[in-house]
Design brief:
With 197 residues, the protein is α+β, with helices and mostly antiparallel strands. The chain has helices at 5-15, 19-28, 33-51, 82-85, 88-104, 116-132, 137-155, 170-181; strands at residues 58-66, 71-79, 161-162, 165-169, 185-194.
């Protein structure tokens, strides 16, 4: 099956791959767009992982006020260069993150940011509740692990499903932007304010 310029353009938009890489990958998979997309995304994720240690000293602070001034969000998103920080796609990422924080009210950026004592307290609460229901120790442990995993997913911004496309997480959204620009991007911190809280 022949590759078309439209397929190459779509692959580039979805993965940030170069023209030749997109064309070569399509040809290697006999024009199968879905297979080429999967391969290019995997390559992009590997490249993004390699960039994770690079310094991010540029970026922007995005603000968002919702519901007639009842909820406000500030989020700091960092990147490596001011060229990327001024790019519309980077600004859109920061705006989407602010919307996500306003809508889903995460408590932490990632699981790594959760203090050990907070995790311990959550485990204790879930264990006590399961024991109060008369569950055995083996079952209590499984219940605690399941509830803790669910709590982490809800509490950590990067683990949450993206409100505009629940087929991807916020982490995947950030990774896609890293692949697009070819440089490290980090959600540094955020604050969410709700009137009366």
């Amino acid at each position: 099956m022949a590759t078309t310029a439209e397929q190459i353009k779509q692959l580039r938009e979805l993965t940030g791959a170069g023209v030749l890489d997109a064309k070569r990958t399509l040809e290697e998979h006999q024009g199968d767009f879905d297979k080429a997309l999967a391969v290019l995304k995997e390559k992009g994720l590997k490249r993004a992982e390699k960039k994770a240690e690079r310094a991010t000293r540029q970026g922007l602070v995005e603000t968002y006020v919702h519901a007639g001034g009842l909820i406000g969000v500030m989020v700091e998103v960092n990147c490596e260069t001011d060229f990327v920080a001024r790019n519309e796609a980077f600004k859109e990422l920061a705006h989407n993150l602010a919307l996500q924080i306003a809508a889903q009210s995460p408590k932490f950026v990632s699981q790594n940011d959760i203090p050990a004592e907070v995790l311990s307290e959550q485990q204790r609460i879930y264990a006590e509740a399961a024991k109060a229901e008369g569950k055995s120790d083996a079952i209590v442990e499984k219940i605690v692990q399941g509830k803790l995993a669910s709590w982490i997913k809800e509490s950590c911004l990067l683990s949450q499903s993206f409100i505009r496309d629940d087929s991807q997480t916020i982490h995947a959204l950030v990774q896609a932007t890293i692949m697009k620009f070819g440089e490290n991007i980090v959600v540094r911190r955020f604050a969410r304010f709700a009137l009366g809280e």
